[in-house]
Amino acid sequence: MTKNSVSEVQTTQKEPERERRIFTFKATQIVWILLGILEAFLALRFVLKLIAANPANPFAVFVYGFTSLFLFPFTGLTVAPSAGGMVLEIPTLIAMLVYGLVGWVIERIIWVIFYRPRGPVTQTTTTDTTDQHTHQ
Asked: Which of 9, 77, 123, 136 is deepest in the core (most CB within 10 A)?
């Protein structure tokens, strides 16, 4: 009489709060992407003004039009020294600093509210044993 034993072990792991961590990660990445785009446009505006770019150029018109909405709260905050058509827009630099800080604060708030640290991973083990007896 021979005894054959076949054993199958199946292990599944469940990571609690995984979806919430993924959401937190994606939400903070969206904040950083949007902030990066805004900062890039503001920096571009600063450089275009500094090199006295043609304000009638369609690209300059687009950059100035897009950024003017975000610079509105900072208009008139300080003087913008100019010479020969070149303008040193100090309010743009201040706006970049303020929006960078605001973006960082928003990202931290999202992290504090939604992030949950990894807890212990729970494992479930299922064992299926089949015994076969062979008569000779």
From this structure: 77
